[in-house]
Design brief:
Pfam families: Hydrolase_3. With 266 residues, the protein is α/β, with parallel strands linked by helices. The chain has 9 helices and 14 strands. The strands form 2 sheets. It has an 8-stranded mixed sheet with strand order 5-4-3-2-1-12-13-14. The protein has a 6-stranded mixed sheet with strand order 8-7-6-9-11-10, with helices on both faces.
């Protein structure tokens, strides 16, 4: 079997519903590396929000911030920041509509409010530390992703106001990631494999939510977790079990990367 490059989403994929890495996932990823395959993370999170996971799994390559900041073996190889003019306009609209906003750089994340219940709720579910207050953090530095906190109904104002200029990807009841137009995990993966000189046919990705749609349909073999919504499962070539039912191990076995080997991949 050719060497494979396998990307894993974090929340709902590497992490179970209790935000823990299942023991079967730890063992499976170690076996992949022992067998000579390359393993990377592909996530909407910023690098500083999954350093502990990288250390636990022994992974130092990743596609982060939904594809806008890509690192291979600890070295940045691609960055796609938000255009400053559009970020300024986004900020002005969010302030006008009284919606809090978070700015994500490669080494820190700040928010433009001191406190907001939408942020408390969303960050609480992810078990992340709430960013510090700095409403001018986005000025004069590269911001790879913004997060606007509003309801799905309120999101329409941003979609109509920035159509064709910015992409929006909802990840929760209140959280919506804002990316440069055309930005996605799939584009980050494209940049990654181009830098490594690998073939798309030798790439695999595991994911479970809306920001995984492009990635799952782009790679050679997209695998949706059993806990993914139907729209994500339809975008994938394969569907494995729920993350809490050893979904990663089952999916890798299904693809013939771990024993038993039905040889799905030639």
């Amino acid at each position: 079997m050719n060497k494979k490059l396998i990307f894993f989403d974090i929340d709902g994929t590497l992490l179970d519903h209790d935000k823990r890495v299942p023991e079967s996932t730890l063992e499976s990823i170690q076996q992949l590396k022992d067998n000579g395959h390359e393993v990377a993370i592909a996530t909407g999170r910023a690098p500083y929000h999954f350093q502990d996971i990288r250390e636990l799994l022994g992974i130092d390559s990743y596609v982060s911030l939904n594809g806008q900041y890509v690192v291979h073996e600890g070295k940045p190889i691609y960055g796609n920041p938000l255009p400053p003019e559009q970020l300024q306009q986004l900020t002005e609209l969010a302030v006008q509509l009284d919606h809090p906003i978070i700015y994500a750089g490669s080494d820190a994340m700040k928010m433009n409010v001191t406190h907001h219940k939408f942020i408390d709720s969303s960050w609480g579910e992810l078990k992340l530390t709430i960013p510090e207050y700095d409403p001018e953090y986005y000025l004069g530095r590269d911001i790879y992703q913004a997060i606007v906190f509003c309801t799905e109904e309120e999101e329409g104002a941003y979609r109509s106001g920035f159509e064709g200029r910015l992409d929006l990807v909802r990840w929760g009841p209140y959280g919506t990631d804002v990316l440069p137009a055309g930005g996605s995990k799939a584009e980050g993966i494209r940049q990654f494999i181009q830098a490594l000189g690998m073939e798309i046919a030798d790439t695999i990705a595991f994911g479970d939510y809306l920001n995984d749609l492009e990635m799952l349909s782009y790679v050679g073999h997209g695998v949706a977790m059993g806990n993914a919504p139907d729209i994500v499962k339809r975008a994938a070539r394969h569907v494995t079990k729920d993350v809490s039912e050893d979904g990663i191990r089952h999916g890798l076995q299904m693809l013939g990367l771990l024993d038993p080997k039905p040889q799905v991949i030639a």
